[in-house]
Hints:
Order of helices and strands: HHHHHHHHEEEE
Largest sheet: 4 strands, antiparallel
Number of helices: 8
Low-confidence stretches: none
Oligomer: single chain
Helix content: 55-70%
Distance between the termini: 59 Å
Number of strands: 4
Strand order of the largest sheet: 1-2-3-4
Structural class: alpha+beta
Amino acid sequence: MSPTARRILGFVLGALMGVAYALVSNLINDYVMPGVPVYQPWPGRPMLILIETFAAALMGLMVCWPDEAIPGVIFSALAGGLASSIMMAQQKADDPAVLFRVVALLFYTFLPRVVILSPVCIVLRWVAHLWEQETLYDPFSLRKRLIAPVIMMLLAGVMGIFSMLPQETRYSLSIMTNILNQGLKAESADELPDALKSVDGFFENARGGFTLEVINDPDQIPVQRPFTSFGTIETPVIIRFESGYAFGCVFTPPYPSPFCTWY
């Protein structure tokens, strides 16, 4: 197999791996939480799937570019770690304070990302090598040549499952969706669920569809809530309506209802 053919093969294999991972990782939460409108960061789900697929294709191209496997694996893992870090920082670019913390965190997690991506690059190069060997020495067999890429795609899909939100978070988002649906049906402020009565302007301004975004720091939402013991996992949620109205809620165990305020 010529170098050009090997590089094209790497690009195609990377795209196959990328589309399997991107589809599962971006759709898994909708599958396990039907009816819960989880917020999709910029540039939106379809574009994220395309970008992740193309990024994986480029990794496949880079890992198969050199004649030797090791330089290709190292170079593609470094490029993949850098690209994923930039992408994560870009999603927080609209909030300078959060962006600074994200960039600082990515500085310390860049090498771990490279380490995590290295086995992915090794698998890509290994599958490309198998395909190349079968091309050189074996009679053509489509079934035999598809075994390794299909297994690779299945493994990528399994990795995408790890993008599923934790069980506690899924439970909180389901409760939040039910509370919001009840609030939108209220005919007066007195009929609002208790969790929404403390939110200024909900009855007047909450219009249209809404999305739920889980953030990392519950203290970003300025709401009074009970003191929690060390290690208690709280779930902070930002609710955004199509009308532009937004507010925040924090789920604090063991209380079943969230503590909400205008955000």
